Amino acid sequence: MYLTSFRQRQRGNAAGKLLTIVLVLGLLGLGGWLVSKDMLKQGGDSPLSSLPSSLGGGVAVPEPAEPVIGTPVLQSAAPYEMKNNIIDIDMSEYAGYGGLIVANGGLAPNPESIFAKQYGFQVRLNKGESEEWSALNNGQMAAVATTADVLAVLGRQFEVTVPAQIAFSRGADQVVVDSDIASINQLKGKVLGASQFNESEFFIRYLASEAGVPVKVLRDLESRPAPNELGLVFYEDAFIACDAYAAELSGNGRLNGCVGWSPRTDEVVAESAGAAKMLVSNRNLLVVADILVVNKGFATAHPDKVKGLVHGLLEGNRLLRDDPQTHAGVVAQAFGWTQQETLDELSKVHLSNLPENLAFFDGSIDSAGSFQGIFQSSVLAYGALIKNPADPARFANVQHLKALDAGGQFKGQSISIAPIRTSGKVALEGDALLSKDIRFFFEANSAALDKQAKANQDYLDTIKKFLQVSPGSIVLLRGHVDNAMVADFERQGGPALVKSMALKAMELSRQRTLAVKEALLARHPGIADDRIELVGRGWEEPIGQDSEQNRRVEVQWFTLE
């Protein structure tokens, strides 16, 4: 199949969609009432009487979409040809793309835009709600605003270049679950509704991957995952996925949550009477990065035009970031939002500047996901679906960012991505977002890390990535030792010896977590000391009969919400 209009990205304001839904439901309700009334006059039973009252008088529960097997197939690559000196860019209704709108002075081609005045071309911003990856690949448009995770899925067939990062989503993407689910680890055996091959699927796959929870794609709500798996059922878009979860909350309960976008996720929680809650958002989990993706043939033939797009984007971001009150009106008019709605939606994004762009691509950014980090996370999250992963370097092209930097453009800007705090510091007394067991290698009967074990360095990098992508987050290192000798201690010295050795085991396990912390800070000196907490649990919390598995350091990740 060719992918022409795959999954909708209904992020941002949903006022228009809600109005449409209200009108449709009203018409359905009126039609149902008329049919019912007519049938009752004829002495028949109403066809609506057999439906649960919780379904709103006959509103059908959304049906899952048939999942695509494998990865999407795109139309063949072809260069984009500019017409009438106008460049076409596709984007969805999302505040993160506001910088492009401000730079262009709206959606339509504009001779007074930054692009026209400084680079001699005009831009047409096409507002759509479907991913136009195939059309971009085939040369039907010059560029698309999308998210970095999708590049790993589309792979080598996607003949594009990425010259700039646009923004980070901060709070728009959310996982809503049954109120008794406290962590990602507790999603084992559960089923969530999502949308395939966009940030809805990536967000939950990323979290499940980090928690070590396998994902199983299900075709319908009657199918169930294995007890150790998270099941995903896909819908045409994330908005509908959350509609389905809301209906199941008051119906059969076959869904345990949904992965979607504000404001629909907020509405599901508010209307659930306490049955649902928001488990996590990306407010302080910056792994959803919006990027500008340009048709490769066009970019190769017109590097000056691509430089103009990058420059205009960064200037629009600067204007909107520095003075949102003045410039939000242009975005509001483009999307049909009010000024206040626009400002509210802008609060859920971080518009990236030039130094943040450079750090995003070279991997030095320390308060958000990097281009390569998100790409590799996407490869890991999708697992076997991606048969032969591409190299992320084939997509990134930072020559225009470097040229703007060398020319002194945006001088004085700095990296400024801070935690968004709503309730002070992270509370370690609550539940961790996720927990991951790591088997660090230590010297025998010692708290000293084995310096010859390369795996130890990889494990340290894993912990660092938790802290990197989530500003303000904390990791709690819980040390554990095996309990194989407890029975021997009991025989040799009774309860007194067991108690004495238990205290020593707790101290050893704590010393091992301290060794991990010290090694982590030595390898990554930019990490603040107070973002790493320690506790030694000795042999009190075995996970099974295997001594090797019990001898571990458990990493618990607490994020800000």
Automatic annotation (TrEMBL):
All copies of the OmpA-like domain together span 429-561
Its localization reads: Periplasm
Q: Which Gene3D superfamilies match?
A: OmpA-like domain (3.30.1330.60), Periplasmic binding protein-like II (3.40.190.10)
* Chief localization: periplasm
Statement: the UniProt record of this protein carries the keyword Phosphoprotein: no
Keywords (A to Z) from UniProt: Membrane, Signal, Transmembrane, Transmembrane helix
What GO cellular-component annotations does this UniProt entry give? membrane; periplasmic space
InterPro entries assigned: OmpA-like, OmpA-like_sf
An example Pfam family from this entry, by short name, is OmpA
Transmembrane residue ranges: 12-35
Q: Which family does it belong to?
A: Belongs to the bacterial solute-binding protein SsuA/TauA family.
Q: What is this protein called?
A: OmpA family protein
